[in-house]
Amino acid sequence: MFLEKIRIENFRIFSELNINFHPKINIIFGRNGQGKTSILEAIYFLSITKSFKAKTDTYVLKHEREFFDIKGSCNNNTTVNELRIYFSRSDGKHVFLDKQKVKTFSEIVGQFPAILLSLEDIELTFGMPASRRKFLDVLLSQLYPGYLFALQKYKKSVLQKNKLLSLEDYPNKLNELDIWNKQLIEFAVEILMRRMEFVDYLNRNINSSYTTISAKEEKIEVLYKTNSGILKNDYNSDQIKKIFSETLEKSKPSELKRQSCLFGPHRDDLEFLKDGYSFKSHGSQGENKSFLIALKLIESQYIFDVSKKRPLMLLDDIFGELDSYRIENLLEIITDHGQTFITTTDDQKGKNIIADTASLFHLENSLIKQ
């Protein structure tokens, strides 16, 4: 699978931009502020139907424009699908597949998977738990429609449960709390099982991937940390349901006192360890970058193993902390991971790639030159 071309209108700084892509590696170079990241953002929009930077769609509209329009042609080796994301201030967002408007955005998510690695991904190791949960949710939602459905329902149930817990002197509070807990349990099982399956896959592959990137023999481990009462990743759905039910029953007094839903997947976290110590406190910038690249490469392979689709790899300005050895290793490896898009301020690093495996684009003043 690869993106043949993209057309962008009224998106970020671009009034209009058309690019035909190479099926393997595409390197976009230029000074800061020229819109390199915005091109990756538009590609990500086609895959996920939302931005990886903006909280709302209006933020990506070009100044004083009424709409933005993103169109892409995606080749899956047998057919070419036309994707379109259209947003207007007055009518909101609409998504089209082969010129047919889709009923729900979830119909698109996962059909054309994408993986992003940017400077902001440092939050995966150094940031708050929410960033790590988001990492899991974006990946698994692209692979399992049931996961995306369960996640959406679970989040709504948490909001409703919190609203109930905040009510003072509500006579039917305990009975309704049982109803919401029952819904939470139903949806949490799918979320917990899929997350733990992926973490198990990570731990079986992360060491070899990290060693390939960093050229260091270090023990890397990923821990899934949950307060749901689940201690292993080898439980079946019935066992998880039973354990989480017991956890929620025991937590009633504390949740009523604090008026908040305290236990469940929405509170879970990942911890990344290097030789038994957290990357957060013991990893250098270079080691952290190598780990994140290794993580994304495994994510790419996992998507392929599950869906038989090679995701689009979006690498935003990641060369900064890498030495020439790591860069050469990365460029050699990613040729096996499907179509890749790389942004950089240094065109020399891009020119090191063999010409027939890549296209080099120079972006300046919102114009692209190949």
Question: Could you name the CATH class of the largest domain?
Answer: Mainly Alpha
How many helices? The count is 10
Give the ordered list of helices and strands. Answer: EEEHEEEEEHHHHEHEEHHEHEHEE
Q: Structural class of the secondary elements?
A: alpha/beta
CATH architecture descriptor text of the largest domain: Up-down Bundle
What kind of sheet is the major sheet?
A: 6 strands, antiparallel
Distance, first to last CA: 22 Å
Rg over CA atoms, rounded to whole Å, is: 22 Å
Instruction: List low-pLDDT spans.
Output: none
CATH topology of the largest domain, which one? Glutathione S-transferase Yfyf (Class Pi), Chain A, domain 2
**What would you call the shape?**
globular
Major β-sheet strand ordering: 2-1-4-5-6-7
Say how many strands there are: 15
The helical percent reads 40-55%
Fourth CATH level, the homologous superfamily of the largest domain: RecF/RecN/SMC, N-terminal domain
- Indicate the mean pLDDT: 91
What percentage of amino acids are in beta strands?
15-25%
Number of domains: 2
Spell out the blueprint of helices and strands.
Layout: E1 2-11, E2 14-20, E3 25-29, H1 36-48, E4 67-75, E5 80-88, E6 92-97, E7 100-101, E8 114-117, H2 123-126, H3 129-143, H4 145-165, H5 173-214, E9 220-225, H6 237-258, E10 269-274, E11 277-278, H7 279-282, H8 285-307, E12 312-316, H9 324-334, E13 340-344, H10 347-351, E14 358-364, E15 367-369
Parallel strand pairs: 3-13, 3-14, 8-12, 12-13
Antiparallel strand pairs: 1-2, 1-4, 4-5, 5-6, 6-7, 9-10, 10-11, 14-15
